[in-house]
Design goal:
Blueprint lengths: L10 H9 L9 H7 L6 E6 L2 E5 L1 H7 L3 H4 L13 H13 L4 E9 L7 E12 L2 E10 L1 H23 L3 E5 L5 E4 L1 H7 L3 H4 L10 H17 L3 E8 L5 E13 L2 E11 L1 H12 L5 H40 L9 H18 L5 E9 L2 H8 L1 H18 L5 E6 L2 E7 L3 H17 L1 E6 L2 E6 L2 E9 L5 H17 L5 E3 L6 E3 L3
Parallel strand pairs: 16-17
Antiparallel strand pairs: 1-2, 1-5, 3-4, 4-5, 6-7, 6-10, 8-9, 9-10, 11-13, 11-16, 12-13, 14-15, 17-18
Helix pairs in contact: 6-11, 10-11, 13-14, 14-15
Length: 500
């Protein structure tokens, strides 16, 4: 196979695509069939570097009509700084065992001139002694923008965290320091690397350790907020008096650690002692000490407010990073993390105790819904679909958007038979639900159905990829059997269940 990606002479390819109707060509049928599973994404087919086929999704992304795109050299759509990389990806695919390359990120320039970020994967195929290159193009411009926004928000949070004029410590339930800001490093003389993972008592005066441990037991047992003074020992053996405020941190009802805020009141304590010593001699000193204390307390209140804002921002950033923005269920990345956690839990329980299931759900004929009512109403269907699924599963079950119109549900402590019953309830509820959609200013009622594949595992089974593959194959089996049904997957075969 010796494809010429950069070939500029399009006379031969021009003859081919004008003579052969592509949508019925026996030459391109194997190629189009190969990529048909990606019909919801942009798809093009090249011969000698020229476009001989492009689906509607790609035409929409590129902004060209079919008459302009056919015969065009595809590399002209790639931005100049990415053309060498695209050519190399194609060459690497040609040299691989299966003739493919996967998810390379490039920038393209559509007809509008506005650059787009895309993921491209593709491969080489031969049909009737002719060589074709098929490409799947996914527009990730919005995703890249969101990543940049998240990066900016994280940077602003880190700047605020490190520039705070108070000490901030995040402690594990066992009292080890998980994170600290630069203020802590500056006043103790230790680097942040030395402070992290160390027990907090390592930096506390021996005389205060017992009271400190008692305070933290009270925080976790009674959800108390503790305010107290203690003495820290610096790297150069100096003593620093701090006033700290410690409170419990919970996430989703779980006690994950504690937050300690403190100020250096060494100078304040010195002033207090001096003023107390002079109390009998000079009554005026008492008023000065009161004024200093009031100012410090006012500052401490402001610092607490700043810290609460930091906590709210951190929670918001965490939620944004794991939630699908359209449906408000969890996103694909968080689904992968939770599935890893559930499989690890199952394996800890041992043989005979652990069981785990999941089911994958795909909306039947969703492309027709989008084509008929528009993508905006398609989004309405996805949002309502997510609500229905959440209402039909338990609070311990995890619902996520797997991608496009696919959803996935993790069901801990659930056999495949039990999971199938839940999936049937979801299937029946969606079939019986009316979806009100507008078409040409008239509200119409649409009936939506779904196909569901169920997978499961017990202790000793293979890992995550086999579990997901089992459910995925069962889902495709449900589609083959006529859609609108639930199919249970297995290692050897799948068993279909009809609507009833």
């Amino acid at each position: 196979m010796d494809p010429d990606i950069g070939q500029r002479d399009c006379s031969t390819i021009q003859d081919s695509w004008t003579i052969i109707p592509l949508d019925a060509s026996s030459i391109l049928l194997p190629v189009i069939s190969e990529v048909s599973s990606a019909s919801l994404e942009g798809c093009v087919i090249l011969e000698s570097g020229h476009v001989v086929y492009a689906n509607d999704q790609f035409l929409k992304v590129a902004g060209y009509d079919k008459g302009h795109i056919l015969g065009m050299e595809f590399i002209d759509l790639i931005s100049s700084q990415d053309q060498d990389g695209f050519a190399k990806a194609c060459e690497d695919g040609a040299g691989s065992s299966d003739g493919r390359f996967w998810d390379c990120e490039f920038m393209i320039t559509p007809f509008s001139g506005r650059r787009l970020n895309v993921l491209i994967r593709g491969g080489w195929l031969e049909a009737q002694e002719r060589t074709f290159l098929w490409l799947i193009i996914v527009d990730i411009t919005k995703t890249k923008k969101m990543e940049r926004r998240l990066k900016d928000e994280t940077q602003r949070f880190n700047e605020l965290f490190d520039r705070s004029p108070i000490g901030i410590l995040y402690l594990s339930p066992r009292g080890r320091i998980m994170e600290c800001n630069l203020f802590v490093s500056r006043i103790t003389g230790y680097s942040r690397e030395e402070i992290k993972k160390s027990p907090f008592t390592l930096f506390v005066s021996p005389g205060d350790i017992e009271d400190l441990e008692s305070d933290f037991k009270q925080i976790y047992s009674q959800d108390a907020q503790i305010k107290r003074e203690c003495v820290l020992i610096t790297r150069d053996s100096r003593e620093i008096v701090i006033e700290y405020d410690a409170r419990l941190i919970t996430r989703k009802g779980h006690k994950v650690g504690s937050l300690m805020l403190f100020t250096d009141i060494t100078e304040k304590k010195r002033l207090e002692n001096d003023l107390m010593a002079r109390n009998e001699e000079n009554e005026r000193g008492l008023w000065e000490m009161a004024e200093v204390k009031d100012a410090l307390e006012s500052r401490a209140g402001e610092l607490v407010r700043v810290t609460e804002e930091l906590e709210m921002l951190n929670e918001k950033l965490n939620l944004l990073s794991i939630t699908d923005g359209l449906t408000n269920v969890y996103n694909h990345r968080y689904f992968q993390e939770r599935l890893d956690d559930e499989i690890e839990r199952l394996n800890r329980q041992g043989k005979g105790y652990g069981v785990l299931s999941l089911f994958m759900l795909d909306i039947d004929d969703f492309k027709e819904c989008n084509d008929t009512y528009g993508h905006q109403h398609g989004d309405i269907v996805l949002e309502k679909m997510a609500r229905i699924i959440r209402e039909k599963v338990r609070t311990i079950d995890m619902v996520a958007r797997y991608g496009g119109e696919e959803f996935v549900v993790i069901l801990p402590h659930t056999t495949m038979e039990e999971a199938a019953r839940v999936a049937l309830r979801v299937n029946e509820t969606i079939r019986e639900t009316s979806f009100s959609l507008e078409r040409k200013r008239n509200t119409q009622t649409a009936r939506i159905t779904v196909s569901i594949g169920v997978g499961g595992m017990v202790y000793g089974d293979s890992g995550k990829s086999d579990l997901v593959s089992m459910a995925d194959k069962a889902l495709y089996k449900a589609k083959e059997l006529g859609k609108d049904r639930v199919v249970i997957g297995s290692k050897d075969e799948t068993t279909g269940r009809n609507k009833g």
